[in-house]
């Protein structure tokens, strides 16, 4: 059976806990949390993730900066990245998708909807 | 020829005529019998032909009846299957609807669990306020809001935390004055009915939730506007508001008590050190 390794990057502990709570519903899933872009880069080194869930507004390094770094690195080029943000304007969505995000989900999130998106990317049929 | 011979000859002739008549009579009787037998056989043939026809007809009818019975049976089976299919289909729809409900409920419970877990995860007042702000942004989807805490010395609500608007821009509110003051006074939540109407945000908030410990109001959560993608409130939002009304109040109150007691403790310790002349080892 496949196992899934997720990286959740969000400066809000509430959001991290909620997203982790949702992802743990997928069998054989492991979730690593990072509270900003810099912390995420540390946790990315030496680890392989099945999917990354990324907030935009974060201290130290924001989500879009981290996204462009990851898309510029061949090791993370094919890792699906889902943006989860409060920024609901079309211009923000387009910007993130142009930088290489695979999906754009706005807060407040519905955990079941988020799970559906995650499962689609990982082709999980549970 | 003598008369005697003549008589004998006549007698012979008479006898032969008699015999011929008898043979003829027998022949007539036989012919009658044959005709009778013929009649009987013809009648029998007609009867047999009729029987044959009737049997054939009966045979056809019974086959049709058998086929009709089979059709009726198949029709019954089909109706049963159709009904069963409809039953299963409606059950399926019911299960799908229940699944959606359960998923929604699960989502709501996850939100409530996480919010209450985070609220009670610290006794630091600043962290508690930060968590309340996070919950309102991330779980409710508010863009501009303030957390007003009651200053009992002046009986006014003072902004303790805010988002989307600077704390200094939010005026203090007297208890009983305006929408916010009235919510603090009555302890009843306020929801603006028409969210689409253009308003003077700071004076006409969308939502005011009293933060209460039992019936004692310690503050008011005031929401001025929602995120662009948030078009209105759903069931979980009202549950979150109700949870915040109680849990945020308790968390804020207990963290304030804790910081006060920490301060008092350090003051008492200072006094003890002063009286005993022994400074606290560092």
Question: Could you characterize what this model shows?
Answer:
- The complex is a heterodimer of chains A (126) and B (282).
- Helix content of chain A is 40%, strand content 20%.
- Chain A has a single domain, classed as Rossmann fold (3-Layer(aba) Sandwich).
- With 126 residues, chain A is α/β, with parallel strands linked by helices.
- Chain A has a 5-stranded parallel β-sheet, sandwiched between helices.
- Chain A has helices at 13-23, 37-44, 63-71, 90-99, 111-122, and strands at residues 4-9, 29-34, 51-54, 81-85, 103-106.
- The model of chain B has no long low-confidence stretch (mean pLDDT 89).
- Classes of the chains: A alpha/beta (126), B alpha+beta (282).
- The A-B interface holds A 12-15, 17-18, 21-22, 86, 88-89, 106-108, 110-112 and B 103-104, 106-107, 110-111, 113-115, 117-118, 121, 131, 134-135, 137-141, 143, 227-230.
| Number of self-contained structural domains of chain B | 2
Strand content of chain A: 15-25%
Structural class by sheet pairing and helices of chain B: alpha+beta
Radius of gyration of chain A: 13 Å
Could you give a short description of this structure?
The complex is a heterodimer of chains A (126) and B (282). Chain A has 126 residues and is α/β, with parallel strands linked by helices.
Which helices and strands, and how do they pair?
The complex is a heterodimer of chains A (126) and B (282).
Chain A: E1 4-9, H1 13-23, E2 29-34, H2 37-44, E3 51-54, H3 63-71, E4 81-85, H4 90-99, E5 103-106, H5 111-122
Parallel strand pairs in A: 1-2, 1-3, 3-4, 4-5
Chain B: H1 3-119, H2 125-140, E1 142-151, E2 156-163, E3 173-174, H3 178-186, E4 190-191, E5 207-213, E6 216-226, H4 235-276
Antiparallel strand pairs in B: 1-2, 1-6, 2-3, 4-5, 5-6
Helix pairs in contact in B: 1-2, 1-4, 2-4
What key attributes describe this structure?
heterodimer; A: 126 residues; alpha/beta; Rossmann fold; 5 strands; B: 282 residues; Beta-Lactamase; 6-stranded antiparallel beta sheet; 4 helices; 65% helix; rod-shaped
């Amino acid at each position: 059976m496949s196992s899934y390794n997720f990286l959740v990057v969000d400066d809000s502990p509430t959001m991290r806990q909620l997203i982790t709570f949702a992802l743990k519903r997928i069998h054989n899933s492991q979730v690593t949390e990072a509270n900003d872009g810099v912390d995420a880069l540390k946790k990315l080194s030496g680890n392989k993730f099945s999917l990354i869930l990324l907030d935009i507004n974060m201290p130290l390094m924001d989500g879009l900066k981290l996204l462009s770094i990851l898309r510029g690195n061949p090791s993370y080029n094919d890792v699906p990245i889902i943006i989860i943000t409060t920024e609901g304007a079309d211009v923000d969505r387009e910007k993130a998708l142009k930088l290489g995000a695979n999906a754009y989900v706005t807060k407040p999130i519905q955990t079941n909807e988020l799970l559906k998106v995650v499962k689609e990317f990982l082709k999980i049929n549970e | 020829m003598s008369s005697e011979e003549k008589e004998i000859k006549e007698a012979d002739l008479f006898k032969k005529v008699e015999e011929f008549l008898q043979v003829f009579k027998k022949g007539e009787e036989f012919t009658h019998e044959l005709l009778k037998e013929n009649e009987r056989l013809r009648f029998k043939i007609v009867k047999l032909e009729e029987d044959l026809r009737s049997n054939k007809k009966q045979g056809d009818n019974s086959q049709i009846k058998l086929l009709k019975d089979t059709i009726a049976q198949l029709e019954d089976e089909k109706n049963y299957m159709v009904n069963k299919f409809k039953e299963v289909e409606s059950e399926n729809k019911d299960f799908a609807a229940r699944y959606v409900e359960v998923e929604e409920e699960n989502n709501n419970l996850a939100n409530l669990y996480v919010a209450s877990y985070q609220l009670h995860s610290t006794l630091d007042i600043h962290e508690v306020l930060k968590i309340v702000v996070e919950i309102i942004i991330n779980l409710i989807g508010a863009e501009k809001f303030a957390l007003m805490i009651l200053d009992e010395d002046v009986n006014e609500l003072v902004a303790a935390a805010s988002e989307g608007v600077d704390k200094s821009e939010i005026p203090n509110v007297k208890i009983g004055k305006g929408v916010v003051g009235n919510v603090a006074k009555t302890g009843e939540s306020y929801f603006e009915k028409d969210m689409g109407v253009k308003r003077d945000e700071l004076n006409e908030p969308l939502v005011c939730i009293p933060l209460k410990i039992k019936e004692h109001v310690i503050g008011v959560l005031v929401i001025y506007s929602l995120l662009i993608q948030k078009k209105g409130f759903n069931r979980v939002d009202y549950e979150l508001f109700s949870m915040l009304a109680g849990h945020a109040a308790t968390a804020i109150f207990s963290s304030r008590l804790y910081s006060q007691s920490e301060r008092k403790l350090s003051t008492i310790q200072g006094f003890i050190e002063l009286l005993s002349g022994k400074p606290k080892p560092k």
